[in-house]
Automatic annotation (TrEMBL), chain A:
Protein name as catalogued: PCI domain-containing protein
Any one GO CC term of the record: cytoplasm
Residue runs in coiled coils: 129-160
Cellular localisation: Cytoplasm; Nucleus
Record key words, sorted: Coiled coil, Cytoplasm, Nucleus, Signalosome
Chief location category: cytoplasm
Sequence similarity: Belongs to the CSN1 family.
Biological classification of the source: Eukaryota, Viridiplantae, Streptophyta, Embryophyta, Tracheophyta
Pfam family name, one: RPN7
Keyword Nucleus appears in the UniProt entry: yes
Stored SUPFAM superfamilies: Winged helix' DNA-binding domain
TrEMBL record, chain B:
Family: Belongs to the CSN3 family.
Main subcellular localisation: cytoplasm
Domain of life: Eukaryota
Record keyword Nucleus present: yes
CC annotations in GO: COP9 signalosome; cytoplasm
Name of this protein: COP9 signalosome complex subunit 3
InterPro entries in alphabetical order: COP9_N, CSN3, PCI_dom, WH_DNA-bd_sf
Amino acid sequence: MEPEGSPSLPMIDEIHSNGGINLCDGDVDDEPSIDGTNTTTTTNNRPIISSGEQLDVEAYGGLYQGRTKIMRLLFIAESCEGNPAMRLEALRMAHDEIKKGENTQLYREVVQKIDGELGPNYAMDSAWCDSVDRRADQKKEKLENELNAYRTNLIKESIRMGYNDFGDFYYAHGALGDAFKSYVRTRDYCTTSKHIIHMCLSAILVSIEMGQFTHVTSYVSKAEQSPEALDPVTAAKLRCAAGLAHLEAKKYKLAARKFLETGSELGSHYNEVIAAQDVATYGGLCALASFDRAELKSKVIDNVNFRNFLELVPEVRELINDFYSSHYASCLDYLGNLKANLLLDIHLHDHVETLYDQIRNKALIQYTHPFVSVDLQMMANAFKTSVAGLEKELEALITDDQIQARIDSHNKILYARHADQRNATFQRVLQTGNEFDRDVRSMLLRANLIKHEYNLRAARKH
Amino acid sequence: MNSLEGVVVQIQGLSSSAGDISRLHVILKQAEESLRSESTRLSPILNQLDPSNHSLGYLYILEACTSAPVSKEQAAMLVPYIARFISYCAPEQIRLAPEKFIAVCKRFKDQVMLLGTPMRGVAPLQAAVRKLQNSSEHLTTLHPEFLLLCLLAKCYKTGLSILEEDIFEVDQPRDLFLYCYYGGMICIGQKHFRKALELLHNVVTAPMSSINAIAVEAYKKYILVSLIHNGQFSTSLPKYTSSAAQRNLKNHCQPYIELANSYSTGKIAELEQYVRTNGEKFESDNNLGLVKQAVSSMYKRNIQRLTQTYLTLSLQDIANTVQLNSPKEAEMHVLQMIQDGEIFATINQKDGMVRFLEDPEQYKSCEMIERIDSSIQRIMSLSRKLTTMEEQMSCDPQYLAKAGRERQRFDFDDFDTVPQKFNI
């Protein structure tokens, strides 16, 4: 490699070390164990998504509560095909969680999936189902009666509470559409901005569960327009929701910005939707995939607020630092390790491939940026791939105009190529001149034809 | 007999000055009928007249001679007369009766084709075109006839000389369509694809109230030439195309549009497959040769793309990327492209490597400066033309009447003196 300017010795060592011994201090103590003796974390949040090791389903489930916990566990069960132990664990936890609630539909589904593999305790408990359903009907009647009473009395606050209770009821029983409608109905009876915010948050929650993220965005903006200042926790919740909506819409840059702006007061207050670790992971990965270097430094690495989140997922923190300091091999290693567990995440799984590709491309571009010529063999070592594969990747990037370089396939060297502005300008000028010439001539010809036709028509008329 | 003699005498007598010629013209017009009736006996009379002095009379008699259908022997006899006439006639005289001149030339062309020797007609018709034109920007009905003869006789270079001139004035739209179509074909024959594209584009986008067969055929060739020259084709026609064309052209050219789609996927095997299955359709339009050129242009496009990405590449890799069968074939293609000036490269046969070079043009030479200068001059003259045209248009009474009608009734800011209603 020939870096521009005179290289200092330590830099050469660092550059060589990309392909050689891995000197990053991040992964020396990267031996996460389930008993939580990891020294890199200070709080009692254990590193849940960790390298190489299987996802600890119990700890993972412990991060969340409510319906999202059940959905996530079910998703894990569905996705880990080759791992029956994890699958059964997830199903068991889901079953226990559902039993605490009142959703008989989900219960039936889970029992069917378990299929008796967990023993007699987890077989279909029809008695429980029936009793829950009966209670549900009774409660529904009661709520209806109350609501009608309130409506005749025309007391706004009570009507609002009534609709809210209905919404909660439907949500607990899994009728998400009805829940959403009930929550939205409270809008007409909201008097203070606190009410509005409450309505928005409920609507957002249900929309996220339903997967309708357009509603999420609109309700987030509605809540943020409230005249009163929002308290930090609510503000953080709204940011997270907005971030999730952008993530689903594949707008990674916007999603990253929202996640990075989330205040650390969030803690575990929003764990019916998202955990703090998720904020760190989603925000970190989206930022890495979509921000340029300057933004990455200012918004992520120097961001004191976000540092609190990154503490919870030290792997993501390490990989961001590695990327910024050009230790691409270890960065890509971390990413590889995280991948299996990220594929089990309900929101992120279909974006993992895209984000990884974008991060890898950025790493390649950043690697070649400072040099006039790069030895492909060394670069292949740095990225832990073969020269042929690297050549293919670089070819795609060059064709896409993301790297300005040309490949010397004979000697396996990449040469930077800076377009000659002067020649390009001359070419463009001549071309524009020709096009103008051609277009004006055809235009004059057409005008002549039209005039001729017009004259013909005029002659015929007379 | 007498009237015929009388006509000849008149011609000989009244062919000296302009005033005489106009009187002669009147007389000839009156005598037209009688001339026609005597068509069979007119040929000996021609020997009494001199084509260069008595052009108008000669023309009328020739026209009467040829008004009846002729047999091959008669054609063989008449052709030299007409050819001589065309080369010697006086332009001012024949411009008094242009339709007659055009009719004579057309029949001349038919006779030449009847005799199976289109080459004989090329030079005379070229002269005829020059004599009939008011200016070099004027398109006559003879232009397409001339180009047709060039095509049939395969004298493409002669045709090109006429095509070099810009056309701004057109007599009949049909002439323009045929002219551009034949002209496009000649340019394709000479591999001047840029000019061919321009001419075919003019046909396709010309104002027309209803679709015509010339435009359809031209569109088919346009698609193919566009693929060869630009490597891409967009089915959207520009805004100024007539609505008739926009609606109907695509329906008539379906196989070609599908060919263009197949081309854009970049897979040569698919393209060749498509060409094989639809070979008869292309054959029946006489476009199979052009289609094959389009297919081979795809290889060129792919190799050109490689020059953007690589500095050196082995012939084996080129063969693999461009889907050729062997490095030998790749070498042939690259060699051909280097010779045609389409890429800049050197082939190292020992290593089997190709080294791609930058375009050596530095834009610093005298020729380049001359080129730029002449382009600037051209464009300035075009601009002047545009300005004069606009000035003419603004003074045109019909335009003013229409503009005056649509003007705002109450315009306090400008009290100009154009009256609101313009009655002339």
